[in-house]
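Re: that chain you flagged

S.,

Sorry for the slow reply, it's been a week of failed gels. I finally had a moment to sit down with the sequence you sent. For the record, here it is as I used it:
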Amino acid sequence: MTTDILLGKTLQELKNIATELGLPAFTAKQLCEWLYTKKVTDINEMTNISLKNRTILSQQFTVGRSRPIQEQCAADGTKKYLFEATQGLIETVFIPEEHRGTLCVSSQVGCKMNCLFCMTGKQGFSGNLSSAEILNQILSVPESDQLTNIVFMGMGEPFDNTLPLLKALEIIGAEYGLAWSPRRITVSSIGILPGLKTFLDKSECHLAISLHSPFEKEREMLLPIEKAYPLTDILEILKTYDFKHQRRVSFEYILFEGLNDSMRHARELVRMLSRIPCRVNLIRYHAIPGVELKGCTTAKMIEFRDYLTANNIITTIRKTRGEDILAACGMLSTEKTNKEKNN
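Prediction finished late last night. Pasting the structure tokens below so you have them in one place:
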């Protein structure tokens, strides 16, 4: 007999399950508490549900939690975890800071987008994660109770997997779920417009857009998706939403030496972003095999930042974390591990 999993189910879905199995209506809220507050891994741990009803549940369902199968720790304390998913292996990164604990979560096994500077894109696409597999990363890392922020900046393109993403976000934010404020969650995307519109309409979480060049041909070279979903269209949509209050929009910008680090680029960024309340995160390029790009100097990054800041665009230089274990921006990949597993 095949079994379904309870993790990743909304309160309404759990109510439907309780009804179908002939369980008391309040069982759904009990299940939510055990799954999302007490973080159990087995139905038999749900001790305020009768043994009879636990048996009924166990005949058709499992919790669906799985612990990471591998852990690596960087010199700076960053930790990278390897998880098994239905479609392959994924990586999740925990980034500790003095008053914060950020988890970088994956949404897909691999990625279809093939961005020039990203190792995940180089490994190709294996499949989407379910809402349960997204939530499992958050609940199953050893630091789960230390988390203060979640960023969907791991493997995959979140808006290429919009429905499971939104379902996971609902559970993370709901009172019956993890009860997190949307201000503690950021979803990063290269700008797939159908998913972007749905996210903006149905979620209040922060948004980060991978920009990397304000010029069409350059951006297309770095992010092939530019051809299908131009940056200009993305910006026009963003101008119709309110980013002055709870929700924040930021733009991610990796600086490459001699490619997108000139004052011409900085001036065009100011022109393009002047009507959108936003911030820009400047990111160092982390070299990956087979790609002839170079990161720009620290002095150039500071000059670029100072120009944007002087022109009323809040700009920060993001600190590199976990580079020595391939956990930094653009370095996540399970291609090698997947091949080893399949041999």
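What I noticed first: The mean pLDDT is 95.

Talk soon,
D.
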